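Sanity check

After download, print the first record. It should look like this:
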Amino acid sequence: MWRLLSPTALLLLVSAGTRAADLSKAMVVLEPEWNRVLVSDSVILTCQGAYPPGDNSAQWWHNESVIPHRAPSYSIEAARSEDSGEYKCQTGLSEASDPVQLEVHTGWLLLQAPRWVFQEGDTVQLRCHSWKNRAVQKVQYFQDGRGKMFFHRNSDFYIPKATSKHSGSYFCRGLIGSKNESSEAVNITVQGPPVPSTSTFLPHWYQIAFFLVTALLFVVDTGLHVAVQRDLQSSVKKWKDGKVTWSQGP
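Expected structure tokens:
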């Protein structure tokens, strides 16, 4: 089979295989960065990834259903409960992204954070968000039912260099007008430092090794084929020129 492939075709095959091995995943980015929002909040989802020249279209999914929207950004002007769920995207030169969860809640206050799982040493940012950005006074943040921080005016709560002791259940409370409102509690986890691993790179090298071995086999097979053909042509030429000698056995 390899004799039917030219060296150029083989190079294209190897190049295509290498590009497939290097194909990266797209990524859904939220703006603002919170994955928990209140009804009527606006959210912009952007598909980050490699785009073909002159083509910045993207494919979008919501809860595994295709969204009839091809722009690189997808806007939700006023979030509704039915906008909750998983969002994925894909560009022309990327694999489909991992799903991003968007939660749309109903209430006066909502505790927000960039993420809910942190590594030791990270800075944890918590935000006590109000419906339609109503003014909130005397804001207090709680961990496992104990008050951790108090602000006369609504402000974000930062925990620098978080450790495992900062894991727990958090919520916020504040005054909206004359009413004392509280958010739902959310769990925050602070993990130990990650252990480096090379296992994620193995599939990439397996694919490259496969195409390199394929190329080597092609070169060896082609060389043998050419050598055999050259010897056969030489023998035929000698026979035609009468240079082949016969010897009679005893």
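If your output differs, re-run the checksum step. Summary of this record's structure: Confidence is low (pLDDT under 50) at residues 1-5, 7-21.
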